[in-house]
Amino acid sequence: PAAPLKAFDVVSPVTGKPIQILSGRYGPYVTDGTTHFSVPKDVEPQEVTAEQAVQWLAEVGFGLMFSTFL
Questions:
Q1: Is 65 strand, coil or helix?
Q2: Cβ(62)–Cβ(68) below 8 Å
Q3: Which residues of the chain have pLDDT under 70?
Q4: How far is CA 65 from CA 14, 35, 61, 68, in A?
Q5: d(Cα 3, Cα 13) in Å, to the nearest integer?
């Protein structure tokens, strides 16, 4: 696997795993290995803050968990 574009010293609120930004087929994305969030096209991956990464993964992860109860 390719080296991450950026790694953070925080863990995902969804899985408790480390968060990093990887380069994917459709562009860079934030991941904890289970939950993924595409970095917006107008944002440079190196400019993403740990807080943004955590928030994005939380929105996706908790949204998925909530939808399973519907």
A1: helix
A2: no
A3: 1, 62-70
A4: 9, 11, 6, 5
A5: 23
